[in-house]
């Protein structure tokens, strides 16, 4: 295989270079489309003082939630944090800094960061605590607040398929934040269900081009359901 081969076989190699006090951008929505093995590797490494940018912080005992157990996360930038009791406990105790960000704004922070755009204006959050202290501009008579984009030392992403060059395809709702996160890391690591050879992916179906990706590893996934809801037969 050529020098463009980005596949690694060990999680130690996948997350090599992660250090204390770095910023990690993580794809996923709830427990859907999360890089389970990469998160577990961060826990194994014991890296601390992390700033983590992700839609949420998993749940108690799974997903990003396992990084709270040894207080590896210093700051969390998220849009939803309602499913994690340990998160709440650390927040109220002053052990965890939290920057709540509207969901669309968070997605755009990642996308803009990956595109090299340092900041953007949005109407979302104006007139609320989200907009406190932020620059305000008026466009067509409507107020907008200035939001800074975000980039990370690492981006950890979960994809359905990738080839050895790092071209990625996501499956259904696992697209969520993963495509934006993939562009915003200085080092982007993708954990996938299947690795294929170059040329096997239809070019028009690729969601993240390999130019954004530094490492690819094949993982196994539990794909836990965050909240299972069923109905009685016939209803």
UniProtKB/TrEMBL annotation:
<dbReference type="InterPro" id="IPR037171">
    <property type="entry name" value="NagB/RpiA_transferase-like"/>
</dbReference>
<keyword id="KW-0808">Transferase</keyword>
<dbReference type="InterPro" id="IPR004165">
    <property type="entry name" value="CoA_trans_fam_I"/>
</dbReference>
<protein>
    <submittedName>
        <fullName>Succinyl-CoA--3-ketoacid-CoA transferase</fullName>
    </submittedName>
</protein>
<dbReference type="InterPro" id="IPR012792">
    <property type="entry name" value="3-oxoacid_CoA-transf_A"/>
</dbReference>
<dbReference type="Pfam" id="PF01144">
    <property type="entry name" value="CoA_trans"/>
</dbReference>
<dbReference type="GO" id="GO:0008410">
    <property type="term" value="F:CoA-transferase activity"/>
</dbReference>
